[in-house]
Amino acid sequence: MSSPALVRHQMEPAAAMVTAEQTPSAAPSQQPVAFRAVAARWFRLNMDKMRAILIGALSIVAFLIAWHLLTKHRVVFFVRFTNVPSPLAVYDSFTRAIHDPKFLMHVGLSCRRIIFGFSLAAVVAVPLGLVMGRFKLIHEMIFPVSEVLRPIPAIAWVPMAIMLWPTNEQSIVFITFLGSFFPILVNTLHGMSLVDPVLVRAARCLGAREASIFREVYFPASLPHIFTGLTVGMGVAWVSLIAAEMISGQYGIGYFTWEAYSLVQYPDIALGMIAIGVLGLMSSLLIRAVGRLVMPWGRT
């Protein structure tokens, strides 16, 4: 009964229990190591982004410090900072305006006009640019007219827009539409002109029809230039909108800025300018984010 085989048979369950009890205690010691490895890998992959964010934050801080010093000491060196409001004065104006429903109404109306005008321009300019880039006859018919109208600045369209449309709201949206229409159209045309003809011939050899070639070859190849045009068009749309609101508008962030100048409220002028810049930046970032979703092959 006390043979070595029997002793080993009795000890095996106890050894298995000891191993089972030791295994969970060993797992927590490996978790910090795995977490550190994942964190180190994430840091290496995002090092460039973190560096760009850090440099951008430092540049903004440096800009604010320079702005504060120039306005505090009323520097006059070709450019006069005697009447320019300080960052603290602008911040005080912001704290008051953020609780003012009228200021929020100005911002909301400007955003609504941008959405309507820019969306309409994108819906019209992108398909038109694709068709003009694909069919030579349509290009020859429309391109000369667009080239004549394209150099006309948005502010020159204000009197004509007032005559064309029955309300100021419609005329402002029309001017915003014109400002973003031509950059989108030109960049879409440029993208169509750079499509590799080898891809088109390969699709035809595989039996693709015109609609399939248009959908599977021309449109994906032109998407980077289309989103470049959308980004540029958004910036021009804000420029056009602010000009229209300053001249013919009664509401909007452009009207708010011009009214602040008329009432000699210098901090509100700077606040309106900063609001325009922030809104334009957010709009461009949104377009770039949509572009990364639509074009996953362009990610690094």
Automatic annotation (TrEMBL):
PANTHER family: ABC TRANSPORTER PERMEASE PROTEIN MJ0413-RELATED, ALKANE SULFONATE ABC TRANSPORTER-RELATED, MEMBRANE SUBUNIT. Residues 107-287 form the ABC transmembrane type-1 domain. Gene3D superfamilies: MetI-like. It is found in: Cell membrane. SUPFAM superfamilies: MetI-like (SSF161098). It comes from the Bacteria. Probably part of an ABC transporter complex. Probably responsible for the translocation of the substrate across the membrane. InterPro entries: MetI-like, MetI-like_sf. This is NitT/TauT family transport system permease protein. It is a multi-pass membrane protein. One of its GO terms (biological process) is alkanesulfonate transmembrane transport. Keywords: Cell membrane, Membrane, Transmembrane, Transmembrane helix, Transport. GO terms for cellular component: plasma membrane. The chain crosses the membrane at residues 52-70, 114-135, 147-165, 171-189, 226-249, 269-290. Belongs to the binding-protein-dependent transport system permease family.
